[in-house]
């Protein structure tokens, strides 16, 4: 599966190249120009508070976690402001994404792996998976690009953190293209603290002209994570 | 700005102690503040360091030469980050959806960054 190799790419990993320069070594070598390039981008970029990873997935109603995972693609991990823009500027605008696709930008320190059950992207190998949740905001398609961009900037600039409870944190943001209204999501790490947050007020302030057609919060329950119940995924 | 009975006081979230000060000279910076290579300033927050950027600074960085091309080792996904047809598995028996293109003209500043080959 070629994409699993792609998935390993990040700011810090270069492309393994033919070890022309030093054929004696068996491990993959980085060409000097590649090293310089990586070095220079790390040097010249402005650091983000944490690194963040762009993901793409496609949700199909009724699919299993395993099937979902085959649609989940890691695009890139960014750790600088310039790195963020170099991805954002060079992937399709959300208005160009096909229906049922989702972009996620997830904070890296919180995420090891993503999986989905009933439209929930959760994190495993971490307590976060049982304790987090997300706000979901539906908006008209003509508003989606602006809402998504403002959410991204607020997230990587850490403008949302101060609107969360003290022990809560932003885990990521997502945008899902749907047949009618699109859905943006703001992930937090502590569903039990979400009522103390006024992040929704902040989002309304970011995009005062946008009319969200629905706003609700959904915690990720352990049962949903395990996916034991037999009821079909309802979307 | 009135201090009494302002809406801020009704909010439940706990504020992070911070203050905004205007500096007239770089020499006025406290010694524990740092500058980033791009020239912005970030400061330490209680309980740890958090790097904060405002929207306008982030937007200024958007047109940096570094951001004009994708990272060289970004995942190449046909139809998304590379030319071609999206190769994520499709549902059986369901015709391929057409992309919705109607939404962009409402936001003239949001020029498409990438043309998909569908």
UniProtKB/TrEMBL annotation, chain A:
Region span, Disordered: 1-26
Keyword list, A-Z: Initiation factor, Protein biosynthesis, RNA-binding, Translation regulation
Pfam hit, one: IF4E
Signal peptide region: none
Stored InterPro entries: TIF_eIF4e-like, TIF_eIF_4E
PANTHER family xref list: EUKARYOTIC TRANSLATION INITIATION FACTOR 4E RELATED, EUKARYOTIC TRANSLATION INITIATION FACTOR 4E TYPE 3
Family statement: Belongs to the eukaryotic initiation factor 4E family.
Protein name: Eukaryotic translation initiation factor 4E type 3
Species whose genome carries this gene: Tegillarca granosa (Malaysian cockle)
Lineage: Eukaryota, Metazoa, Spiralia, Lophotrochozoa, Mollusca
UniProtKB/TrEMBL annotation, chain B:
Bias (Basic and acidic residues): 88-110
Residue segments, region Disordered: 64-118
Domain of life per record: Eukaryota
Keywords assigned: Protein synthesis inhibitor, Translation regulation
UniProt-listed Pfam families: eIF_4EBP
Keyword match Signal: no
PANTHER family recorded: EUKARYOTIC TRANSLATION INITIATION FACTOR 4E-BINDING PROTEIN (PTHR12669:SF12)
Family, per entry: Belongs to the eIF4E-binding protein family.
Record's protein name: Eukaryotic translation initiation factor 4E binding protein 1
Species per Swiss-Prot/TrEMBL record: Tegillarca granosa
């Amino acid at each position: 599966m070629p994409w699993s190799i792609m998935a390993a790419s990040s700011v810090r990993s270069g492309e393994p190249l033919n070890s022309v320069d030093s054929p004696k070594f068996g491990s993959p070598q980085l060409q000097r120009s590649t090293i310089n390039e990586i070095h220079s981008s790390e040097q010249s970029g402005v650091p983000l508070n944490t690194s963040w990873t762009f993901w793409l997935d496609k949700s199909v109603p009724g699919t299993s976690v395993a099937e979902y995972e085959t649609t989940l693609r890691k695009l890139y991990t960014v750790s600088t402001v310039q790195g963020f823009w170099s991805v954002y500027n060079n992937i399709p605008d959300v208005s160009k994404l096909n229906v049922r696709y989702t972009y996620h930008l997830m904070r890296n320190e919180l995420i090891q792996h993503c999986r989905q059950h009933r439209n929930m992207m959760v994190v495993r190998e971490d307590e976060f998976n049982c304790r987090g949740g997300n706000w979901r905001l539906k908006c008209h398609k003509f508003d989606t690009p602006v809402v998504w961009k403002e959410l991204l900037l607020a997230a990587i600039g850490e403008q949302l953190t101060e609107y969360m409870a003290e022990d809560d944190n932003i885990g990521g943001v997502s945008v899902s293209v749907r047949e009618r209204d699109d859905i943006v999501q703001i992930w937090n790490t502590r569903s039990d603290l979400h009522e103390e947050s006024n992040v929704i007020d902040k989002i309304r302030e970011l995009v005062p002209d946008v009319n969200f057609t629905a706003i609700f919060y959904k915690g990720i329950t352990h049962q949903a994570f395990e996916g034991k119940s037999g009821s079909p995924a309802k979307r | 700005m009135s201090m009494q009975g302002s809406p801020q006081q009704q909010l439940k979230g706990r504020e992070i102690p911070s203050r905004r000060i205007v500096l007239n000279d770089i020499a006025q910076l406290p010694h524990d503040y740092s500058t980033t290579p791009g020239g912005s300033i970030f400061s330490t927050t209680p309980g740890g360091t958090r790097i904060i950027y405002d929207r306008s600074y982030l937007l200024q960085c958007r047109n940096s030469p570094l951001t004009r091309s994708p990272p060289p080792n970004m995942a190449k996904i046909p139809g998304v980050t590379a030319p071609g047809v999206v190769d994520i598995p499709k549902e059986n028996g369901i015709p391929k959806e057409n992309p919705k293109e109607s939404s962009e003209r409402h936001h003239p500043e949001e020029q498409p960054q990438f043309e998909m080959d569908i």
